[in-house]
Write a structure and sequence with these properties.
The chain is built from 2 helices and 6 strands; from the N terminus they run E-H-E-E-E-E-E-H. With 92 residues, the chain is of the alpha+beta class. It has one domain. The model has no long low-confidence stretch (mean pLDDT 88).
Length: 92
């Protein structure tokens, strides 16, 4: 490490998550408090199987089958790539 350069380490935290398997809409809708829905079809884009509302950024975010949906520290929900999830998180 270079002298005088600022560095930081991310604090460990415990998060809640669910895996969207393409069929568990009701489970995720209940878990998110009604913030999970069937995906919208937009011309020229792949069909979104579902969407979750990210309260922090006030927008609907596409969720594809097999993705992980995370509940953030401020109660927001967002999708996370499955392969990166398992690289960055240890399961408890």
């Amino acid at each position: 490490m270079a002298v005088g350069m600022p560095f930081a380490r991310k604090k460990p935290l415990v998060i809640e998550y669910r895996i969207f398997d393409g069929t568990n809409y009701a489970e995720l809708d209940e878990w998110t408090g009604g913030l999970f829905r069937l995906g919208e079809r937009e011309p020229g884009y792949p069909r979104a199987e579902a969407e979750v509302f990210d309260k922090l950024h006030r927008t609907w975010v596409t969720v594809f089958k097999g993705q992980i949906v995370i509940k953030g520290v401020e109660g927001e929900f967002y999708p996370h790539a499955t392969d990166l999830f398992y690289e960055n998180y240890d399961l408890l």
